[in-house]
Amino acid sequence: MSAGTEKIDIIVSDIVKVNDLVTRSSFDAPMVVFCPPFPAARIRSSR
Amino acid sequence: MKDGEITRLNPYSLMSDPMDQTAYTISVRRDDAGRGGSLFMHHKVKKGDRMVISYPVNLFSLDLRARKHLMLAGGIGITPFLAQIKQLARSNGKFELHYACRTPALGSYVDELTAAYPNAVHVYFDDQQQVIDLDHLLDGQPLGTHVYVCGPKGMIEWVRKTAAALGWPREAIHYEEFLVPQSGKPFEVYLKRSGLRIRVGEHESLLEAIERAGVEAPYLCRGGACGQCETDVIEYEGEFVHRDHWLEPAERASGRKIMPCVSRFEGRTLVLDR
Asked: What's the DSSP call for residue B155?
């Protein structure tokens, strides 16, 4: 995957103030979630 | 995101349920002394705004071979665990969360976590002198437990060192630390393949300067962790300021590699293969 070329358009759907320092924002993402872990071979450390 | 003449490209942890295909949710901690990205998110982004993001990637995934997941969060480092807990709750995975924050008022999501998982969530407030008893906690875990930590650099080091000293296998210790680019002295770089000479400003990263020049460069985390932006150095005269978690000591010493998302350079000449 090359993150530099694959993009998703999103729209801010909700903004909620959590506390004085934190804001929670939600984004409509009209694409299927694609969130695989990295292939192990590309991860050099223990993560 | 366009913020005037600046294009802001910031990585955030997705905190919504990974199975929720309708929306992504993030939390942004406001950093009044930072480079402006969080202030932009707090003050300028409005409901209905359009943005463009990269595909999500996961550099801090659960190891589902673990029999139990022991999670340690500090401050806004809680966000990746919110998604992971939803994932584990869905599959009846066994987990325990220990969440340290400065004060109750700054304990984001404490109430909803303790309400939803009263037996699995433990909260510690600095202003009440509550501290995670880490040695005891790590020492008492069943075989097959994996530990995950996300929070300030000092907390991550503390957990990694304590776990290693207690004999935890390296592959059972997971951590997430995203660095942000630090300001520094401006410097010039020659991008040999592009034939461009660029100047990296005091408050921008080398990667941002490359992008500003219109040169496409690979990236994922933009925080010195994923290795995607690793760039070959062709020639240099000066000193590298390496700040990433990716390069091995020998690679740093060789002067042949740089991670432009967080690292800088001080000297007369830097020529990159870009």
From this structure: H
**Are A4 and B76 within 8 A, CB to CB?**
no
Number of H helices, E strands in chain B: 7, 14
Residues of B in contact with A21 (CB under 8 A): 29-30, 106
Contact B218 A2 (CB under 8 A): yes
ipTM greater than cut 0.90: no
Q: B interface mutation test: which of A5, A32, A45 has the most B CBs within 10 A?
A: A45
The pTM for the full model equals 0.82
**B187-224 per-position pLDDT tens digit:** 999 999 999 999 999 989 999 999 999 999 988 888 88
What are φ and ψ of residue B101, in 5° steps?
Answer: -140, 165
CB B189 within 8 A of CB B212: no
Beta bridge partners of B233: B272
Burial of B51 (0-12, 13-18, 19+ CB in 10 A): middle
